[in-house]
Write a structure and sequence with these properties.
Blueprint: H1 3-31, H2 37-55, H3 58-61, H4 65-89, H5 94-101, H6 104-116, H7 122-138, H8 148-168, H9 176-198, H10 207-231, H11 237-244, H12 246-257, H13 264-284, E1 291-296, E2 304-309, E3 317-318
Antiparallel strand pairs: 1-2, 1-3
Helix pairs in contact: 1-5, 1-10, 1-11, 1-12, 2-9, 2-10, 4-8, 4-9, 5-8, 5-12, 6-7, 6-8, 7-13
Amino acid sequence: MTESSRRLRAVVALLGTAAIWGATFVMVKDAVSRYPLYAFLTLRFVIAVIAFAVLFPRAVRRLETQTVRVGVLAGAFLCAGYVFQTWGLQDTTASKAAFITGMFVVITPIMQAVVLRSVPRAATLAGVVLAVVGLWMLSGASANGWTQGDTRVFMCAVAYAAHMIVLGSVGRDHDPVSLTFVQLSVVAVVCGAISFATEPIALPNEGSVWIALGVTGVLASAVAFGAQTWAQRHISPTKTALVLIMEPVFGGLFGWWAGDVFGVGGLVGSALIVGGMVLSELRALAPQRDERVVVANAPEGPPVPLLESEGGGTSATPTGRPPSGSDPA
C-alpha cells in the first residue's frame, strides 16, 4: 500500500470517528430521556473500560502509580464534562449541544493563557469572538434563546478545556493509552457511586438505550481512540485536528435529521463557531519563532494544539510526532 493510500484511509478513518462522535449527541439525548442519567453514564463507561482493556491490554499492564494519580485528576475534569453535557442534553437540542461542546477548542488556549499568565495571540482572540458571536446567533440572537441546558453544556466545554490543560501539562510524560484507561475508569466509578446513591438500580429495558450504550461505550471510545492513534501516524496533526473538528458539524446534521430546526441565524451561528474553532487550531499550529506547538489528545473530541514558549509551560506532544506510547498493540 502506498503512503498516499494510507493517508487517504487515515482521513476516512478520522471522518468516520467524527461522524460517530457527532451521532452520539442524538443517541444520548434519546437514551437519557428513557433511562436515568448517571446509570446511563455508568454503564457507558463500564462498557468503555472493558472494550478498552480488550483492545489495548497493555493499558492495564503498563499502569504506574503516578499515571494513576494524573489519570484521576484528568478523569475528574473529564467526568465533569460528560455529566454537564449529558445533563444539558435533557434541556437543549442535540445539534446545539454539539456546537456548544465544540467551544472547548477556543476556550482551551484562553485558559492556557490564564494559567501561563500570558497574552493570547490576536488570532486566538479572533477565534473566540467568532465562536461567541456564533453562539449568540445559534441561540436566536436573543437571551431568551439560551436555556439551562445550554448553560450546562457550556460548563461541559469549560471542563473539557481544563481537561486538555491537564493532559498537556502533567499528563504529557505518561503513556496515553494507560492514562486514557484510568480516565475512563474514573468516570465509571464516580458516576456509578452517584447513581447508586440517587437513582433506582435497574438495567435498561429498551433496545434503543442498549444501542446507545454500545455505540458510545465501544465505537465512540475504544474504537475511536484506536482509529485516531493509527491515523496520526500517517497524517499531520493539523489535518487530524481539522478533520476531527467536523464532529459538531456531524452533530448538527444528525440533529437536523432527528428533527432539530435550524433557521438562517442558526446556520450562520454554527458556521461561525466552526470558523472560530478552525482559526484557533490553525493559529496554534503556526507558532512564532520562540514557541513550539504541542498537541493534547483527549479520549473523545478533536486534539487541541497548545503553545509552549522556550521557558516551558503547558505542553503535550510535539507537532509532527505521534503521542508517546501511541502504538495501540
